[in-house]
Amino acid sequence: VPKKLVTTVSGCADDALAGLVACNPGLRLLQGHRVVLRSDLPAIRGRVALLSGGGSGHEPAHAGYVGKGMLTGVVAGAVFASPSVGSVLAAIRAVAQAGAAGILLIVKNYTGDRLNFGMALERARAEGADVRMVVVGDDCAFTPPGKAGRRGICGTVLIHKVAGALAEAGASLDEIEKKVMAASKVMGTLGLSLSPCSIPGSKPSFQLAEDEMELGLGIHGEAGVRRMKVLPADKAVETMLKHMTDPSNASHLSLTPGSSVVLMVNNLGGLSCLELGIVAGAAVRCLENRGIRIARALVGSFMTALEMAGVSLTLLLVDEELVRLIDAKTTAMAWPNILAGPVTTRREEVPAPIEAPRKPQDETGIGPGTVRVQRVLERVCSTLLDMQDKLNELDRGAGDGDCGHTHARAAQAIREWMCSRPLPAAPAQLLSALADVLLEQMGGSSGVLYGLFLTAAAQSLRGRSDSPAWADAMDAGIEAMQRYGGAAPGDRTMLDSLFAAAQALHSLRSPSADPLQVLAAAVQSAEAAAEATRHMEAGAGRASYIRSSRLEQPDPGAVAVAAVLGAVLE
């Protein structure tokens, strides 16, 4: 049985509605019934009331569509079960007593829903209520027309919206019924699923192989029209639209170039939102290529089938009036808050900002000899390339095993950069340029951390290159790494080696210091600190998610930093 937070089906429909009402001040439960009504019920006096409903398990349908400008109320059944006649009748009476000028029941085309809503309608009429019923069948799955007719699925939500906007504008029951019937005749929906769904406490209703998907499933897990191998999103969407609009399919939707549609891309409950966005883009592209104008697109979870990993596409052919009704304001919580405007993949992009021109290199001539710098950088690069496998091995215990690759990438990038242009003479510009190279080419967190370190260090070297300036630069770089990286000395990161070296470099601030001796001491301190990380517990970085007993090796970042410093000194 699939894992769920709800282990039994009994009571879950009531609990779900109670949760929705608790979180939404615009909703109220009808005492003794599984019925949700608008909290401002007196506002419907003199207007047409709209009631809908069906089995639970399709959330946010239908209670999410109760609100001003949409439904007046809904009647919910248990999971995947029609609501009772008694509850439907109680809902009709509640809105009739609130002074509704006629009541329209919007029902999805399933035998149980038609029977229960129909029975309640007959009883309400006998009591003198003016009640009508519209049955929505928008499913385009079945090629031969079955006796049961087309199933009512996600397109029903668009019917709620159109009817709700008309009722809010004061339209009569006759007008609403006529316009809603006309809209439902030019609408089609088709589902596609990668997985079954399961009622809490039960096994899935069917199985799909790892590499299979099913076209035309119902929203209760009923069989579709065909199974096929899993296709990528754009091909899957093409297959769906082809089936929906195929003239040989008795339940097809006629779509001619130049038509205007509202597109609904509906998550059947278990598809990731990432995939849903990709499907939506593919659907817009596919329709545009056929010469269809997409007046509006709604993307989200509108009518689900519990946790089914799938998607349905709904197309409603629209004229200007229907678009206005879709755009009309509603307080229903599950209706998306979208801007009125056409849908296209050809939107103009915001132009990229213009980078400020670089300051002229006014600091040339001071600083270390370029040949020496080139030699040092070449040593650093070959050291890192030689250590690639060792660093990867150290990283496997604590991270994703790519520390060596990342540092090797940096070494290659620095080599290419040195070959491509003369090196800046001023230390500040040299470090800034190195920061740019690493940020662009190194990748990983290390690239950003080195970039931060070098950028901040470069600031300290602006216009100076005396020994104390290098101590300041080291401190500034470490401070920037700590500020954004969140690590501190002792957290078993590259910072441990850097920090140890920086402490030793503080001696550069004394006038009598011998820079080479200080550098040698700094390298020794860095190497000792890197080795000491072997016994530390990781406090930051990816390794901090791993139990310390499994980290018997020194930290690869700390080892790399110590090696870089060693190469500089050689």
Molecular structure report:
The protein is of the alpha/beta class and 570 residues long. It has helices spanning 12-23, 85-97, 111-126, 155-168, 173-185, 233-245, 273-289, 320-327, 370-386, 388-396, 403-420, 427-441, 444-460, 467-485, 494-505, 515-532, 556-569, and strands spanning 27-29, 35-38, 49-56, 73-79, 103-108, 131-136, 187-193, 212-215, 226-229, 260-267, 293-300, 310-317. The strands form 2 sheets. It has a 6-stranded mixed beta sheet with strand order 1-2-4-3-5-6, sandwiched between helices. It starts with 11 loop residues before the first helix and ends with a helix. It catalyses: FAD = riboflavin cyclic-4',5'-phosphate + AMP + H(+); dihydroxyacetone + ATP = dihydroxyacetone phosphate + ADP + H(+); D-glyceraldehyde + ATP = D-glyceraldehyde 3-phosphate + ADP + H(+).
Short description:
This protein has helices at residues 12-23, 85-97, 111-126, 155-168, 173-185, 233-245, 273-289, 320-327, 370-386, 388-396, 403-420, 427-441, 444-460, 467-485, 494-505, 515-532, 556-569; strands spanning 27-29, 35-38, 49-56, 73-79, 103-108, 131-136, 187-193, 212-215, 226-229, 260-267, 293-300, 310-317. With 570 residues, the protein is an alpha/beta fold. The chain folds into 2 domains: 11-201 and 208-327, 3-Layer(aba) Sandwich (Rossmann fold), CATH 3.40.50; 368-569, DhaL domain (Serine Threonine Protein Phosphatase 5, Tetratricopeptide repeat, Alpha Horseshoe).
